[in-house]
């Protein structure tokens, strides 16, 4: 198969992948493209730099095809949305646990949260007086730290 044909197939698959998630944010689409490229690179590495259509298909949509098969050969919008939402929230939960989990045991405790808060507070309390003053907040801090106004919550 010619290189131009391979590229055309890759772009068709990319367009299909992006089209099926048109409702997603641009960031999600960019992550999908990155994931697609990673899957294709891995498949090609495993196959000495080339892949067949079947290998391409397996690399691209194995999880989606499994979901269709697990749901009797058809997947509704609601079923797909539920699966995507669950996967998104699981990724978010893993990031939060990784950020706070001080023992590395994959769980989140009140002590983990308090420990993280103490670290962030210490970073913000630049003069080490036990208080955070407005002047110690990062520039634009009210936007970065979740507040919508100048008052500290």
UniProtKB/TrEMBL annotation:
Keywords: Signal. GO terms for molecular function: calcium ion binding. Residues 131-153 are annotated as: Disordered. Residues 45-66 form the EF-hand domain. The keyword Signal applies. It holds the Pfam family EF-hand_5. It comes from the Bacteria. Residues 1-24 form the signal peptide. Transmembrane segments: none annotated. This is EF-hand domain-containing protein.
